[in-house]
UniProtKB/TrEMBL annotation:
Pfam families: Glyco_hydro_114 (PF03537). Gene3D superfamilies: Aldolase class I. Residues 36-261 form the Glycoside-hydrolase family GH114 TIM-barrel domain. Keywords: Hydrolase, Signal. SUPFAM superfamilies: (Trans)glycosidases (SSF51445). It comes from Marinomonas polaris DSM 16579. GO terms for molecular function: hydrolase activity. Residues 1-24 form the signal peptide. This is Glycoside-hydrolase family GH114.
Length: 268
């Protein structure tokens, strides 16, 4: 039997690569306040916008698309749902039946997840690893405020805080930025854990002030408004945009389907 002898220096390099972290501490993208962005989750992604970052679907976006966007100087945030089961996703079979709750209102093929479940968390870890393998700069985990609704489970606000902090810690451990999505009541408590916030209709629902802690911490708030009046009435849109600029938010007026049928930006 032949025994292969490695030089000690080579052995040290191999051991170092096995046990050292993939990323240095604090080594991930941090978007600035008033960052420009485009959000498209449906249809063929329009790559032509002159913005700082794109927010696109993790599963539906190819590595080639992500690389093209990055080659043009853009950062890429990858979307997935962290709080709901979607029956069309390729990893849908990985969820246990006991972890599937009630159907989401308006979304018949989605069900709430038990965010306390270790199996649910394992699926999310694999999704984070997928984001790394595809080269995403960050992630947008959706439906992370389910404690506020009737999910079919009995978890509370503290369970949501624990789950959201779990997602943030796991993202950062992989060198990924992470955004807090639609969780206004916990935004202040979580602003130190997340790198930016994404909110929908915060002007329509008078929730924008809930995210002021992000701006104070030098972290952007990316907001999307869907009211048709902002499309049809320039005066109404300008009034809303004036408020957005005063708050230093990055606000877009988009179709609720997020399919790039139109796009209006409050930023210059």
């Amino acid at each position: 039997m032949r025994v292969l002898l490695f030089p000690f220096s080579m052995l040290c390099v191999l051991l170092s690569s096995l046990f050292s972290p993939l990323y240095a501490a604090d080594d991930w993208y941090r978007p600035p306040v008033s960052v420009t962005w485009q959000w498209q989750l449906d249809g063929v992604v329009n790559e032509g916008y002159d913005v700082d970052l794109y927010d696109i679907d993790l599963f539906d976006s190819s590595v080639e698309l992500i690389q093209r966007l990055q080659a043009s100087g853009k950062k890429v945030i990858c979307y997935f749902s962290a709080g709901s089961y979607e029956d069309w996703r390729p990893d849908a079979v990985d969820f246990a039946a006991k972890d599937l709750g009630k159907t989401l209102s308006g979304w018949d093929n989605e069900r709430w997840l038990d965010i306390r479940s270790s199996q649910v968390r394992d699926v999310m870890i694999r999704r984070l690893d997928l984001a790394v393998s595809k080269g995403c700069d960050g992630i947008e985990p959706d439906n992370v405020d389910s404690y506020r609704t009737n999910t079919g489970f009995s978890f509370r606000a503290n369970d949501q805080l624990d789950y959201n902090r779990f997602l943030a810690a796991q993202a950062h451990a992989r060198g990924l930025a992470i955004g807090l999505k639609n969780d206004p009541d916990q935004a202040r408590a979580l602003s130190s854990d997340f790198d930016f916030a994404i909110t929908e209709q915060c002007f329509e629902f008078s929730e924008c002030r809930s995210y002021s802690s992000f701006i104070k911490a030098g972290k952007p708030v990316l907001n999307a408004e869907y009211r048709r009046i902002y499309v049809d009435d320039e005066a109404q849109r300008n009034a809303m945009c004036k408020q957005s600029l005063a708050l230093e938010f990055s606000t877009l007026v988009l179709p609720v389907t997020l399919d790039d049928k139109f796009r209006l930006s409050c930023l210059p």
